[in-house]
Design goal:
Elements lengths: L2 H23 L5 H23 L12 H27 L2 H8 L2 H12 L6 H18 L2
Length: 142
């Protein structure tokens, strides 16, 4: 089994727990404060991991990678917006309705990968994307 597949499964498992715990965590806390708390915890977590990996010794040369930094800044902004809107969605909707719509990001990502990254989409991929979208709508509108 390829290593990327194991990592992807672990990521999916942890992402599912994020949805469940977010729903439980926004019961009495505002969605924006919930996002702030999650971001602080994640920042502390990654600081610890990067420290153990010795990543901070490489910070001096990081400005050589301006394009990478720009994309990471954009990732942070869009990730925060994603969390904020998902926190609001969980505050006002059930997990079983919110998550299928959120997971349509899979279909959007695949389409954007073709447009932006010029990745090839086979007929099978396009059919799969259609099933994801239809499935998400069917589940969310139950």
């Amino acid at each position: 089994m390829p290593l990327w597949f194991i990592y992807a499964i672990l990521g999916a498992v942890f992402a599912s727990l994020v949805s469940i715990f977010t729903k439980l965590g926004v019961t009495n806390i505002s969605p924006s404060l919930a996002g702030t708390i999650k971001a602080i915890i994640m920042a502390i977590f990654f600081i610890i991991i990067s420290s153990f990996n010795g990543d901070f010794t490489k910070l001096s040369g990081i400005t050589n990678y301006k394009k990478d930094l720009l994309f990471l800044v954009l990732t942070g902004i869009f990730g925060a917006l994603s969390w904020l809107f998902m926190n609001f969605a969980f505050k006002h909707g059930s997990v079983t309705k919110v998550v299928p719509i959120d997971k349509m990001s899979i279909a959007i990502t695949i389409l954007l990968s073709a447009l932006i990254l010029k990745e090839h989409l086979s007929a099978r991929t396009i059919i799969g994307v259609a099933f994801i979208v239809i499935g998400g709508i069917v589940i969310a509108l139950h």
